[in-house]
Design a protein that fits this description.
Tetracycline Repressor, domain 2
Length: 205
């Protein structure tokens, strides 16, 4: 009985590892082309598994996309939590730097979500899951503004901050004439200017 339990545990670990492999492959494929042009066969090929096998884990392309997006978003939320819970003086710069560094280092996730935002349409249940992910990020920004002393409803401020940071990333991540390190440094400088403006607004609320 004991051996059977250990074997069952090993099989479960193997299944989970294969699922992660598929999710990583899905992120790469969704990052390379628009959602509507991706097929389950494309993802199976990238994951180096047979097309029928992929359906053991995911019922369709949309379900797979949502799982891949959730995986990336949760990792980013963990990075935000570490920043917000850091001891010592707090500044909005820390949150902005975490956001920009994470999405620069996780380029596949960033491109996947950018492609989706520009080109895709999904059913209402999946859309609600994506909106819940966005609300999690905005909740983090709400917490940051409240730590700076902002009062009342700060969600509009968080929406604006989120959009502005994404604008910096979209505009300057691939900056002709600059190396990746130089592009990152430039984005962080821009984010610092942005944070100065938002910190002033938050303190005045």
């Amino acid at each position: 009985m004991k051996g059977k339990t250990a074997f069952a545990r090993l099989k479960e670990q193997e299944k989970e590892a294969r699922k992660v492999l598929i999710l990583d492959a899905a992120q790469r494929v969704f990052a390379a082309k628009p959602f509507g042009k991706v097929s389950m066969r494309d993802i199976a090929k990238e994951a180096d598994i047979s097309p029928p096998s992929i359906y053991t884990y995911f019922s369709d392309q949309e379900t797979l996309f949502i799982e891949a997006a959730l995986k990336g978003t949760q990792d980013m939320m963990d990075a935000f939590a570490a920043t917000l819970n850091r001891s010592g003086d707090f500044s909005l710069d820390q949150v902005a730097e975490t956001f920009i560094r994470y999405l620069t280092e996780h380029d596949v996730y960033f491109r996947m979500m950018a492609h989706f935002g520009l080109h895709a349409s999904i059913n209402s249940a999946s859309l609600e899951k994506l909106k819940a992910m966005e609300r999690s990020a905005l909740d983090t920004f709400d917490s940051a503004f409240r730590k700076l002393g902002a009062r009342g409803d700060v969600r509009l401020l968080s929406h604006t901050f989120f959009a502005a940071l994404n604008g910096i990333l979209i505009t300057y991540r691939r900056n002709p004439g600059r190396s990746e390190e130089e592009a990152l440094a430039h984005m962080l400088r821009l984010a610092k200017v942005l944070c100065g403006l938002f910190s002033t607004v938050a303190a005045a609320r």
